[in-house]
Amino acid sequence: MTSAPAGDRNGERRAAGRWIRGVRSLARWSLDLLAPRVCAGCGGLARDRAALCTVCRDDGFRAPLVRPDAVEGISEILAGTLLEGGARHLIHDLKYRGSKVAAFDLAEWIARLAPPETGPEVVLVPVPLTAARRRERGYNQAELLARELSKRWGIRVEPAFLSRKTFRGSQTRRGGEDRRRALAATFVPGPRFSASSIPVLVDDVLTTGATLSACAAACLHGGVDRVHGVCAAWAQQEGGVLPEPRALGISRG
Ligand SMILES: [Zn+2]
């Protein structure tokens, strides 16, 4: 007769957990209601449930479409905007607060562009975090972004397509090539990997492209034919030349 009380206790614990979560979401909801949302771009009043005010959001839509520099191992690379102004604030909110409204606005900007490829074998693959980092944050910002993009592009998300192991050894003492190789070794095919898929890697910021390249290498080694990439914002390298605006497949204003 020990299982019934244990079951009761578990039930009580679950009920208490539900109750606490309920109170928390109610508190969050009333805070949202009382404190108007502040625009992440200009500090003004944001739209209902959005991270940016209408002006900042439209600025994003007016921002030139950019074509990032080629990334090794990636067939086609897209970016929603440059990493500047309101985009910088949105990325911060997405990365460090797991803000879904930031993911929403960034995905709106990206979805001005058509996906690199469509078809039943195309999947959105968020760049994975290590399990430890994921636990610590409670979310993967690339996955939040991929989920919003998925709604707009109609492409499914495969968060377990790749796995990420912990980076071993000092990063600072390694040379560029050495570090690149070590980074590449941290990405491996995950439980949902499929060689017949065409992965579109999703990340928040594109800087040198080393992370995307490392993910692409893992996919290509695993046997996929080609890999694409999409990032919310491109941290264009200093002194770089703004490429030709990319007017391909714009789906919205
Ligand atoms: Zn604003």
General form: globular
CATH architecture assignment of the domain at 64-234: 3-Layer(aba) Sandwich
How large is the share of residues in beta strands? Answer: 5-15%
Strand element count: 6
Explain how this protein is built.
The structure is a single chain. The protein has eight helices and six strands. It is an alpha/beta fold. The protein has a domain at 64-234: Rossmann fold. The strands form two sheets. A four-stranded parallel sheet has the order 1-6-5-2, with helices on both faces. A two-stranded antiparallel ribbon has the order 3-4. The termini are far apart. Mean pLDDT is 83; it is low at 239-253. The radius of gyration is 20 Å and the shape is globular. The protein has helices spanning 3-34, 54-62, 86-97, 100-110, 131-137, 141-153, 176-184, 210-221; strands spanning 77-82, 122-126, 162-164, 187-189, 198-206, 228-234. The longest helix is centred in the N-terminal third of the chain and has 32 residues, at 3-34. Helix 7 packs across helix 8 (210-221). Bound molecules: zinc ion. The site of zinc ion has 8 residues, from helix 2.
